[in-house]
Amino acid sequence: MDTGFLELPELKLRYYRFGVGNSPHVLVTAALHGDEVTGTYAAYKLVEYLKLRENIEGTVTVIPVVNVPGFISRIRFNPVDYVDMNRVFPDGTGSLTTRRIVSFVWELASSSDYVIDLHCAGLNSYQYILALYREFPKVKELTDRMPWDTVVESNGTRGQLFVEASYRGIPAVIIETGAEKFIRVV
What we know:
alpha/beta, Aminopeptidase, 6 helices
């Protein structure tokens, strides 16, 4: 396991990497929206699980909290500039902080074979996968291998991490969880 940080003057963005250098490379992100904390919970559970594995086929990079300022404030946006980080990929906009975070995550995504972005659809929501599976056959192959009952075709709002990755040939999805499922587990 390799643990690292994107160190900015105003914050540290922590990431974990397992199976360093092996292919395929999967990037798992969470808390692009700072108020969607169940994705962060799931990301840390994934980190705990991977720490126990001796032989990992491929490389997995996990960023449990992308939008650190929003997560600390428990708001969707970066409170520095009120930019929704999941609407400004790949180039970023807003404050230098937002642009640096987006650039760092985009660099990791661009060198990955798959991108899985964890979100929270709300307390009473049913979990589902959001993807551009009709437009991109490799995305369909990815969703077919995932153990979820419901896959929803996205409208493809540009600027979202998974949309931009899909358009660049990297199979990518959002997993929307219902918070209630995680609350019961804890």
